[in-house]
């Protein structure tokens, strides 16, 4: 908490580090001083080079130039185990835990030599858990733990391996606001006991709340280091983006009384017969954006797939413009004007090894301009792919480039452009701006708003509460496969949403 | 320049694989105490006219087999059952043709259709099992191969007659035969009249895959089943269609020989063509021209290996090793080249985007 450590050797110094990659924003001239016993935040847009730097620090990648010092001593990591030897541990955004094992088993996995796998290990885990107030039981199964607890298991894993410097990769991305507060308590406790934390994020309010120092990365290089007290959130955002920060808010309401999508009493069971979605009732009108808020894995995926026609509901009705389409397949629904921006663009949105113009055909295999009768209209598809590249500002050398070669944001822009083609009536947008940079995010929001003005109905699923509140005309919260609350986006706060999403408060609140 | 680079990369993998396979074969020869020089002298000698004809004939049959396998491969469906489908189809076709329900060439055309139907039906069993019961087509087609061999042998005893050491079906009426085409006056063998069947099938394959909606759905499913589903492809239906199509093409494999040379189905029918087709398809990257090249290479290796025993004192079986190694190497080489190409492309994208700087930002 104090500044007395500035004269001591930095916990981690990065000096002029560079890394070149084909096709990825490389690091160049990255310089960073992390004081021991502090929380140091590393902020930057997606693609600013945060992950590359992180991988270099954790020994996953070797830098092409520059040097790294840990505790004043130059180090050369060739693998993560080298990093761990120097006391650097990493907590990944996507947990690397085996659900069917206990906390103890997960922690000792790969570190059996430290304290064995029995009581000695159990004692050590209890000691760490108590020291930092983690409240973890070594013998509990990981599958019974909540997201916040799983994250603490991940942190415990690196502490167990002797890490004093912990890198946290977007640790709050998977948490709701209440869990974020709990995490920050843990981090403060870790810091007060002499650990150094490197916190990677692009959520500026959180960064300002927890960090002692903030280093901003932009286009692969460190722009500046600041103290949270010296900058406003707005200034920080501009440092990060290098321009004005866009906002998702929609101006006037364009909602009509024409129903486009109606879902009644929808229930979906998974392959094991468990009910994952039940009693879903919702209506979306032309010109309306309906936002669904919820912690991931509470039935959003199933809801989307049931509306798109990829899974068959056990019960209930899906109507498109007053026509019962429950028994229709995905193709027929798409033909009748359903656009679909999938949650996972690599799995569901693109043929990664096919050129962009072929990706233009995907999802539109039966419609002009990419297809004529039973034949692929190559010329038509190419012209229209070119149009999307132009209108949606997809940064690519051309439409013969494979989808894989593009950055995530550009892939997403292409998908949005494709799904907006042919004037859809209904757009199902799952996390439409996940993993895209701020510029692309603003563009995608603009396109959704513009289409909404022309009468598009949108089902919006997002983990970004600001996006949900800003874009939606009405909001519903989904929890354990049920709609548990309705909110008016004009009046709701992220805290209220967060409470409803975790079930802290399930009573609907209508304005 | 760009297309040249692309073509170069496309050729790099098979050439690399052939060279490595050649080196490994030589090492095996040395290790076994044979003379690699004599081996290569025989293998690389210009084939006699008779051998050239044999190579073309063999290649046309391998080509059909490769196409049959490739249809499945293009949508990640591993039809290992081309062998069984081809045997069943050829037997059924030979039996049908011998009945002479139709006169002259009408009988030929009808028989070819029957062969395609029989091949498709046999493949259809695996497709149904996959779609309704989730049985892997790899397992079921392998099983069906074994069943096909036994079933045909059993039926052949029922309907066939003994001719020397072998049992054969009745002879196809001569009016439906497709005479061979004499390429060289001094050659005792002629080119199959039905070589054009392979050419037609290749063109059909290319048009179907690259030009039709069905072909797009099939390739999309092969690229990414999940993306295909999200785009509206009914994957189960695609599994059935492509498996039937694969079996139908497999049904053609026996036709050039049936109408050109043997005129009946006998217990000495050439075996292993279905399996070789899998290798040929892999070698040719499931591309119609690539498969043709693969078929020619395999046919060349087999034909040139025949005199190895006499001329070089080396057992011709060594060539099966070469063919096997070629396939192994080619799988690896394609992956290496694919990664290299991805890198090149990403670099090209990065360069193209770097050059003009951050031109236009945001807005639509």
Automatic annotation (TrEMBL), chain A:
SUPFAM superfamilies for the chain: P-loop containing nucleoside triphosphate hydrolases
UniProt-listed CDD domains: ABC_Carb_Monos_I (cd03216), ABC_Carb_Monos_II (cd03215)
Superkingdom assignment: Bacteria
A Pfam family of this chain: ABC_tran
GO molecular function annotation: ATP binding
InterPro entries: AAA+_ATPase, ABC_carbohydrate_import_ATPase, ABC_transporter-like_ATP-bd, ABC_transporter-like_CS, P-loop_NTPase
UniProt entry keywords in alphabetical sequence: ATP-binding, Nucleotide-binding, Repeat, Transport
RNA-binding keyword on record: no
Domain ABC transporter: 12-244, 261-505
Entry protein name: ABC transporter ATP-binding protein
Organism this protein belongs to: Nocardioides jiangsuensis
From TrEMBL, chain B:
Subcellular localization(s) per the UniProt record: Cell membrane
Protein's membrane topology: Multi-pass membrane protein
Transmembrane segments: 7-32, 52-73, 85-102, 108-131, 138-156, 191-209, 239-259, 265-284, 291-312, 318-337
PANTHER family cross-referenced by the UniProt entry: ABC TRANSPORTER, PERMEASE PROTEIN, GUANOSINE ABC TRANSPORTER PERMEASE PROTEIN NUPP
Alphabetical keyword list: Cell membrane, Membrane, Transmembrane, Transmembrane helix
Organism listed in the record: Nocardioides jiangsuensis
Record's keyword annotation contains Membrane: yes
Pfam families, per database record: BPD_transp_2
The protein's name: ABC transporter permease
This protein's record includes keyword Transmembrane: yes
Organism taxonomic ancestry: Bacteria, Bacillati, Actinomycetota, Actinomycetes, Propionibacteriales
UniProt superkingdom: Bacteria
């Amino acid at each position: 908490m104090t500044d007395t450590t500035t004269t001591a050797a930095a916990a981690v110094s990065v000096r002029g580090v560079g890394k070149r990659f084909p096709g990825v924003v490389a690091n160049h001239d990255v310089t960073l001083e992390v004081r021991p016993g502090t929380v140091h935040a590393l902020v930057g847009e997606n693609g600013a080079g945060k992950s590359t730097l992180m991988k270099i620090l954790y020994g996953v990648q070797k830098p092409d130039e520059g040097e790294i010092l840990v505790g004043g001593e130059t180090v050369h990591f060739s693998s993560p185990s080298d990093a761990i030897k120097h006391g650097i541990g990493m907590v990944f955004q996507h947990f690397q835990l085996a659900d069917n094992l206990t906390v103890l088993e997960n922690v000792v996995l790969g570190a059996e030599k430290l304290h064995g796998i029995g009581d000695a290990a159990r004692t050590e885990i209890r000691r760490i858990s108590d020291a930092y107030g983690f409240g973890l039981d070594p013998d509990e199964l990981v599958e019974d733990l909540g997201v916040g607890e799983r994250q603490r298991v991940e942190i415990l894993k690196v502490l167990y391996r002797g890490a004093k410097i912990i890198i946290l990769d977007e640790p709050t991305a998977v948490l709701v606001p209440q869990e974020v507060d709990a995490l920050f308590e843990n981090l403060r406790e870790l810091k007060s006991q002499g650990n150094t934390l490197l916190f990677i994020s692009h959520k500026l309010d959180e960064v300002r709340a927890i960090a002692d120092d903030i280093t901003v990365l932009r286009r692969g290089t460190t722009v500046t280091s600041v103290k949270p007290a010296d900058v406003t959130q707005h200034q920080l955002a501009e440092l990060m983006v290098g321009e004005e920060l866009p906002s998702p808010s929609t101006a006037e309401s364009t909602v009509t009384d024409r129903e486009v999508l109606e879902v009644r009493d929808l229930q979906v069971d998974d392959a094991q017969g468990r009910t994952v979605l039940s009693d879903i009732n919702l209506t979306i009108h032309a010109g309306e954006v309906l936002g669904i808020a919820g912690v991931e894995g509470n039935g959003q995926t199933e809801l989307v797939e049931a509306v798109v026609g990829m899974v068959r509901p056990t019960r209930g009705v899906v109507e498109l413009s007053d026509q019962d389409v429950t028994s229709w397949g995905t193709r027929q629904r798409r033909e009748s004007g359903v656009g679909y921006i999938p949650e996972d663009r690599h799995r569901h949105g693109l043929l990664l090894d096919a050129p962009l113009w072929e990706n233009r055909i995907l999802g539109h295999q039966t419609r002009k301009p990419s297809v004529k009768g039973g034949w692929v209209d190559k010329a038509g598809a190419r012209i229209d792919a070119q149009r999307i590249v132009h209108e949606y500002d997809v940064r690519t050398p051309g439409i013969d480039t494979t989808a894989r070669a593009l950055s995530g944001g550009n892939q997403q822009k292409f998908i949005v452009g494709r799904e907006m083609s042919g004037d859809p009536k209904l757009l199902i947008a799952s996390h439409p701006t996940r993993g895209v940079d701020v510029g692309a995010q603003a563009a995608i929001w603009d396109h959704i708003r513009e289409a909404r003005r022309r009468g598009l109905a949108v089902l919006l699923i997002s983990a970004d509460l600001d996006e949900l509140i800003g874009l939606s005309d009405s909001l519903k919260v989904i929890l354990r496969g049920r709609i548990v609350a309705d909110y008016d986006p004009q009046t709701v706060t992220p805290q209220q949403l967060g409470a409803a999403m975790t079930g802290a408060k399930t009573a609907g609140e209508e304005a | 320049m760009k297309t040249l680079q692309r073509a170069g990369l496309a050729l790099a993998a098979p050439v690399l694989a052939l060279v490595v396979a050649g080196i490994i074969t030589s090492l095996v020869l040395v290790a076994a105490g044979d003379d690699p020089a004599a081996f290569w002298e025989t293998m690389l000698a210009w084939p006699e006219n008779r051998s050239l004809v044999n190579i073309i004939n063999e290649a046309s049959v391998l080509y059909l087999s490769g196409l049959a396998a490739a249809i499945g491969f293009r949508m990640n469906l591993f039809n290992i059952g081309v062998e069984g489908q081809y045997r069943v189809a050829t037997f059924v076709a030979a039996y049908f043709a011998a009945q002479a329900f139709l006169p002259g060439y009408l009988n030929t055309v009808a028989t070819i259709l029957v062969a395609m139907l029989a091949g498709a039906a046999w493949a259809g069993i695996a497709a149904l099992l996959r779609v309704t019961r989730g049985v892997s087509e790899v397992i079921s087609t392998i099983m069906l191969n074994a069943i096909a061999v036994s079933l045909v042998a059993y039926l052949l005893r029922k309907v066939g007659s003994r001719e020397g050491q072998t049992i054969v079906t009745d002879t196809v009426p001569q009016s439906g035969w497709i005479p061979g085409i004499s390429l060289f006056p001094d050659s005792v063998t002629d080119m199959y009249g039905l070589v054009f069947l392979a050419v037609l099938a290749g063109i059909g394959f290319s048009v179907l895959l690259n030009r039709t909606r069905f072909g797009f759905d099939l390739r999309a499913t092969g690229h990414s089943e999940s993306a295909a589903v999200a785009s509206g492809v009914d994957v189960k239906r695609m599994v059935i269609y492509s498996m039937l199509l694969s079996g139908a093409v497999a049904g053609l494999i026996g036709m050039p020989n049936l109408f050109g040379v043997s005129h009946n189905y006998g217990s000495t029918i050439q075996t292993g063509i279905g399996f070789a087709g899998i290798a040929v398809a892999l070698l040719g990257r499931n591309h119609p021209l690539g498969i043709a090249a693969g078929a020619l290479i395999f046919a060349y290796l087999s034909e040139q290996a025949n005199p190895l025993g006499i001329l070089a004192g080396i057992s011709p079986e060594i060539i099966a090793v070469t063919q096997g190694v070629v396939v192994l190497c080619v799988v690896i080489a394609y992956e290496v080249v694919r990664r290299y190409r991805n890198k090149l492309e990403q670099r090209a994208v990065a360069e193209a985007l770097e050059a003009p700087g951050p031109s236009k930002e945001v807005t639509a």
